[in-house]
Amino acid sequence: MSRRSLRTFLALVGSAAAAAAVASPASATGSTTASTLDATAEPAVLAAAQESLSQRLGESYASSWLDGDGKFVVGTTDASRTRDIRAAGAVPKVVEHSAAELAGVQSTLDGRAGSVPDSVTGWYVDVTTNDVVVSVLHNDPAGVAWANSAGSAAVRVEPTTQANHPKWNLIGGQAIYFGGGRCSIGFNARNSAGTRYVITAGHCTELGGSVTGTGGAIGSVSGSSFPGNDYGVIRVTSSSAVSTPLVDRWSSGSDVTVAGSTVSPVGSRICRSGSTTGWRCGTVGAFNQTVNYGGGDIVYGLTRTSACAEPGDSGGSVVSDPGSGTRVQAQGMTSGGSGNCSTGGTTFFQPVREALNAYGLTLYTG
Q1: Are strands 344-351 and 298-305 parallel, antiparallel or unpaired?
Q2: 14-18, 226-230, 241-245: which has the minimum mean pLDDT?
Q3: Is the link from the previous residue into 227 a cis peptide, with omega within 30 of 0?
Q4: Is 338 found in the same domain as 219?
Q5: Which residue in the list 273, 314, 317, 335 is annotated as catalytic?
Q6: Residues facing 225 on adjacent strands
Q7: Cα(334)–Cα(317) distance, rounded to whole angstroms?
Q8: Which of 148, 178, 262, 332 lies in disulfide reach of 207, CB 3.0 to 4.6 Å?
Q9: d(CA 108, CA 102)
Q10: Are 149 and 199 members of one domain?
């Protein structure tokens, strides 16, 4: 049996071992008889029936599936084999193309993927309609021609209006790019209407314009406060960018998950994540510090820490130290400081709760 036909039953098969242990559909359970193979049967029973029939029908086998009524249907290109299918408790369907033929057509298309137009959004074997479906955006002539060049009557072109896009995660600490520089994601949040935002540093969002990330476009700056404060938000408009409660620990371990925003007290351990220096930890030294960055840029209400940071880390997540766990409390977004991660120094962060309150947002948590 081809791998393609097996995929039809992926959601049904408990395990290959369980399937192999079933001798026949009728004997596997007392409640399943030769005339009642349907969606109510045990998954292993259906898998065993499918395996048995695919072997018995050989080249005439044309895949198996559950129809809209939940009946177990087995296709064949040889009408004389319908009795065998019924005897096994399945519903026979005589079709034109075998499973092996359809798999071969798909393999041919796979081999020509290097020349596929962007208007072709994908192709697959539809066992229920006994053909290979090629989805073509807006029925584009170039896409249709590519599909038909496979030279098989088994190909069916299916127009679609939706293009496919890869999904990528917005994760705290990872890089974001503005027209004039690079900063880091702080946290993902949303408002009561479900509109999504990335929270980062205000001295980053004051650059304005469109913002991109590691996977492509994110959206545009929709709010910024600097100096005085140091927070800003980017409205996420890309359908490909997935908002998450995660913060990157880089080489220090797997991502941690934001569980809330409980403030860590003075003297406690915190860690920060940024796209320049990764995951760095230290202790909280003081709350509500006023910081003068020079040139009239004075920021109030920052938290002082001993965690190091460097340019590009700005806006990145500051969270409670997870210790040996993976859940953290959001503290704030890296603002600035002195020193670096070679000689050490002091880093300040903008408390996240102030930004959440200012824009009426709620963190993504997990």
Answers
A1: antiparallel
A2: 14-18
A3: yes
A4: yes
A5: 314
A6: 231
A7: 7
A8: 178
A9: 10
A10: no
What pLDDT shows up at residue 344? 87
Which CATH number is 270's domain given?
Answer: 2.40.10.10
Note if 255 is an active site residue.
no
- DSSP three-state, residue 182: strand
> Pick the catalytic residue: 38, 84, 230, 313?
230
Note whether 184 and 131 are same-domain residues.
no
Q: Is 61 helix (H, G, I), strand (E, B) or coil?
A: strand
Q: Which of 43, 74, 94 is the last residue of a domain?
A: 94
Does the annotation count 314 as an active-site position? yes
Is residue 174 within 8 Å of residue 197, measured between CB atoms? Answer: no
Q: Which two tokens stand for residue 55?
A: 């072997």
Residue where the block lists tokens 């990330």: 213
User: Has this prediction a pTM greater than 0.85?
Assistant: no
pLDDT tens track for 244-300: 999 999 999 999 999 999 999 999 999 999 999 999 999 999 999 999 999 999 999
Token pair 């990335």 in the structure block, residue? 198
Kindly state whether residues 190 and 317 are assigned to the same domain: yes
Strands 175-178 and 181-184: antiparallel
- Exposure on the CB side of residue 24, measured as CA atoms within 13 A: 11
Q: What SS3 class is residue 364?
A: coil
Q: Both tokens of residue 51?
A: 């395996």
Indicate if 252 and 354 belong to the same structural domain: yes
189 & 212 share domain: yes
For 333-366, write each residue's pLDDT tens digit.
999 999 999 988 899 999 999 999 999 999 999 9
Output the average pLDDT for the chain: 89
Burial 314-351 (b: 16+ CB within 10 A, else e): bbbbbbbbbeeebbbbbbbbbbbbeeebeeebbbbbbb
- Residues 153, 252, single domain; the answer is no
Range of the domain at 175: 169-363
Residues 79 and 104 in one domain: no
Catalytic one of 54, 152, 203, 273 = 203
Average pLDDT for residues 91-108, to the nearest whole number? 96
Question: How far is residue 127's CA from residue 97's CA, in Å, rounded to a whole number?
Answer: 10
The position carrying tokens 């359970």 is 29
